[in-house]
Amino acid sequence: MNVRRVIRNLFLPPWRVRLVFPARTLRAIEAAIRAAETTHAGEIRFAVESGLPFLPLLRGQPARERALEVFSQLRVWDTQRNNGVLIYLLLADRDVEIIADRDAHARVSTEGWEKICREMETLFRQGKFEQGVLHGIRSVSAHLARHYPPQKKDSNELDDRPVVF
């Protein structure tokens, strides 16, 4: 068990997310997702969590595993073309995970998603949280636009609002 990680996750209060992502920033993220989705037929969700819940933390749950749970909970997998993408941030660890539904994942390599995560984490280490998320949205959208051009009858299948846990 990583004691530092446990302390970081337990003692980073949920209200800290609101300091890093105030309402203005959440609105900017929502607008960026909405605008990005006009350039492709994919779906993007963004979720941020201050820290892991107690029991998963004690079990040593990695951020990736938690991101998979959030992906399922938000039903990002529930798109017609299996092209939903979740950008998940575990704030206590400053760890970004991108989970893509099966068709989107098959079209973009794991390395492609990981590159976006590392770029976002670099911006987060500089305290540039809004810029980091907006960069991630643009980068994910570039991949989705390449593989899923916009359709005339395209509907918004998933909510564009960021989710704060």
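(ticket continues) Second input and output from the same batch:
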Amino acid sequence: MTETALSHNGILIRLPDERWQPIIQRHTVLTDKKQLVLNTLSNPTRILEGNDGALLAIQQFEPARWLVVAYREEGDDEFVITAFPTRRINFLNRRRQIW
């Protein structure tokens, strides 16, 4: 099943099962946090520039832990690339902030 969320820019972003399954296999802490991933797309704390035209929606979800959702808004196929938790906020702070 494909879930969707409106990005901060008002673009409908897809999160299909074929993207979700590898995310939760690699990051088991996100297994029950699909809605958090979708909410992060819609209501990020900030948006950073990712690699190869991707955007990174960031939201803190635990003390000293952030959720990063990488996604694309360009073209005809807007979708979540991946999502992962991190404590490495300094690494994220090196990226250009878009919003």
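Agent notes: The longest strand covers residues 55-62. The beta strands are 3-6, 12-15, 46-49, 55-62, 65-72, 79-86. Closing as not reproducible unless the customer responds.
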